[in-house]
Design a protein that fits this description.
The chain is mostly beta strands and 160 residues long. It has a single domain, classed as Immunoglobulin-like. Helices cover 13% and strands 48% of the residues. The strands form 2 sheets. Strands 1-2-3-7-6 form a 5-stranded antiparallel sheet. Strand 2 and strand 3 form a beta hairpin.
């Protein structure tokens, strides 16, 4: 079971939508960035849905930069697979890997998660999010890698 680390940080805002990182669900070997996208309630539902359908199933772009300078990201082609990332003897990635972990929504709000391996080193962790097809340019949130590592110690392993 993950330990939730609240973030509640605004990533991007324009006249049509807002994007924020709600929390990190931290596991012993990585974490999920929980992202929310909310459309402006003052814009007509028809306009919101027309905008959604105009960019189709375009996924957000998400990336990370750890304090040691290592980076990882997802959303740009070609997509990387977990199989393509260098791993240690236990099979855990040795450089940041970002993969989508699901999401959904409709109407005016959407949520998705991005799984990040491995745990970051102590120091700042920068999380970058954009969705150019929807007019949401890149924004960034910074979290403390030490807090992420401390949260990982509180996560519970259910199966091993």
């Amino acid at each position: 079971m993950p330990w939730l680390l609240p973030v509640n940080a605004l990533v991007h805002r324009n006249d049509e939508a807002v994007v924020w990182v709600e929390s990190l669900a931290v596991y012993p070997n990585g974490f999920v960035v929980n992202v929310n996208i909310q459309a402006d309630p003052c814009v007509s539902q028809q306009d919101v849905m027309a905008r959604v359908h105009s960019f189709g199933r375009a996924f957000p772009r998400i990336g990370v930069r750890f304090s040691d300078g290592s980076t990882g990201g997802q959303g740009a082609e070609p997509r990387r697979s977990r199989l393509d990332v260098p791993k240690d003897v236990d099979g855990f990635p040795t450089e940041p890997f970002v993969g989508f972990s699901g999401g959904g929504g409709g109407g005016r709000g959407w949520r998705f998660g991005a799984w990040i391996y491995p745990l970051p080193p102590n120091g700042p962790v920068e999380i970058f999010i954009s969705m150019p097809a929807a007019g949401l340019e890149e924004g960034k949130v910074e979290v403390d890698g030490g807090q992420v590592r401390a949260a990982a110690e509180r996560a519970r392993v259910i199966w091993s």
